[in-house]
Automatic annotation (TrEMBL):
Binding annotation for Mg(2+) 1: 72, 88, 91, 215
Keyword Metal-binding among record annotations: yes
Record: residues binding Mg(2+) 2: 90
InterPro entries: His_9_proposed, Inositol_monoP_metal-BS, Inositol_monoP_superfamily, Inositol_monophosphatase-like
Required cofactor names: Mg(2+)
Protein name, UniProt field: Histidinol-phosphatase
SUPFAM superfamilies associated with the record: Carbohydrate phosphatase
Annotated PROSITE patterns: IMP_1
Domain of life: Bacteria
Source species taxonomy: Bacteria, Pseudomonadati, Pseudomonadota, Alphaproteobacteria, Rhodobacterales
Taxonomic source organism: Antarcticimicrobium luteum
């Protein structure tokens, strides 16, 4: 296949395939080459994070040199096309270190209006959740299946996920708890896999705070392609990160938003 024949989706899948190859040998390995990026807490990065992002950047330098890149480990490289590839080589490094298959590779292509294409890839389980205009699919052990969010119509029937029980500031935690007190079930610790499950119709809400742009661009594209909504806690765009509300449908989104807007 020639360079000009490669579509953006081809490139995104190439990035995900390459990241899988780089990362999997490290997973559940006794020596991950881990460092702590936060002297005041624990924000781990491994050799796998850095190697995977470098490998993806090399592909983009060859096939999309005009596009910008924003990655968690190596920052921003401005482009000239008005488009940016947003990369998080391992979203959920704490889970990666713990051996849980809830981390993932996040890849998005974004323009001025936000994410246009996104992939949430879980290399260990072999699941790839893809969202793009006219495309919302899961490729995995059972083959290809469509992604579609749930039609749950009330909070008391909803399943809510977040990554950490200690959600953001005390005020943000209070907002989360107010929603959690209204839902049927609340679960923790899923990182980007929670967003993938929302797109797959398994859960209804994800509420988080303190996210970076590279944490949320790919989930936005996947969830919106599957029929869901992703905004900030005021109902506005959340492409830059911060407080995130992802919902399976407009009814649940509005119900959760009415509570979170009070924070």
């Amino acid at each position: 296949m020639t360079q000009t024949a490669l579509t953006d989706l081809d490139i995104a899948n190439m990035l995900a395939d390459t990241a899988r190859e780089v990362i999997l040998p490290y997973f559940r390995h006794p020596d991950l080459g881990t460092e702590n990026k936060d002297a005041g807490g624990f924000d781990p990065v491994t050799e796998a994070d850095r190697a995977a992002e470098q490998a993806m950047r090399a592909i983009l330098a060859r096939h999309r040199p005009e596009d910008g890149i924003l990655g968690e480990e190596f920052g921003a490289r401005p482009g000239r096309s008005g488009r940016t590839w947003v990369l998080d080589p391992i979203d959920g490094t704490r889970g990666f270190l713990s051996g849980t298959p809830t981390w993932g590779v996040l890849i998005a292509l974004s323009g001025a209006e936000g994410p246009e294409l996104g992939i949430i890839d879980q290399p260990y389980t072999g699941e790839r959740f893809t969202g793009a205009p006219g495309l919302a699919v899961l490729d995995g052990p059972r083959g290809r299946t469509p992604l579609a969010t749930r039609a749950t119509a009330s909070l008391d029937q909803a399943i809510l996920f977040t990554t950490f029980p200690e959600v953001g500031t005390p005020e943000e935690r209070a907002g989360f708890d107010a929603v959690a007190g209204r839902v049927r079930l609340t679960r923790y610790g899923m990182d980007c896999y929670a967003y993938a499950l929302l797109a797959a119709g398994q859960i209804d809400l994800v509420i988080e705070a303190g996210l970076n742009s590279y944490d949320i661009h790919a989930p936005i594209a996947v969830i919106e392609a599957a029929g869901g909504l992703v905004t900030d806690w005021q109902g506005g765009p959340v492409h830059d990160g911060g407080r995130v509300l992802a919902a399976a449908n407009p009814i649940l989104h509005q119900a959760a938003l009415e509570i979170l807007r009070r924070v």
